[in-house]
Amino acid sequence: MQLQDLKPFPCERKTRRRVGRGGGSGLGGTAGRGHKGQNARSGGGVRPGFEGGQMPLARRLPKHGFKNFLFRNRYSVISLGTLAKAFPGASEITLDAIYARGLAPQDAPVKVLSDGEPPANVTIHAQAFSRKAQEKIQAAGGTAAALEATSAKA
To answer: Among 114, 110, 117, which residue's Cα sits nearest to residue 134?
Structure first.
């Protein structure tokens, strides 16, 4: 038996409901939609969240704060350990080199996190660094060069 030969038992498969095929089927005439009314019409029904004219729940509940979803910065995160593995013995790690190795999507802002040990005496260019990552890089004799963050819409 091969993987492509596997199929469920006939009793496990739900049969498609064939509506409007005569009175003997039980779903003839009105096809299970009842008589008249909004839901009986083609294209009928109400939109999601509609509560029959009552003030919908999404509008009744209080809103708090400001959500800046459209213009937020979404960083592509890279750990120090990943950089150390990808650039052994490098004295400078630039954004172009990070993009070229496939560690971050092209033109995505990069943030370096502190997981792992940084390479010694290395200058790392990125848009953002965690505080701990900056401390680790400086303790290893390197520098963390923060670039200006550009807003990347994703």
So the answer is: 114
Helix (H, G, I), strand (E, B) or coil at 148: coil
Residue with tokens 């200006």: 148
- Nearest CA to 93 out of 120, 130, 131 is that of 120
* pLDDT tops 80 at residue 87: yes
- Report all structural domains of the chain as residue ranges with CATH numbers, in order of start: 20-61 (no CATH), 76-146 (3.100.10.10)
Using DSSP's 3-state secondary structure scheme, residue 29 falls into: coil
- Choice between 12 and 150, residue whose per-residue pLDDT is larger: 12
Query: What is the arithmetic mean of pLDDT over 44-69?
Result: 93
- Check residue 56 and give its pLDDT: 96
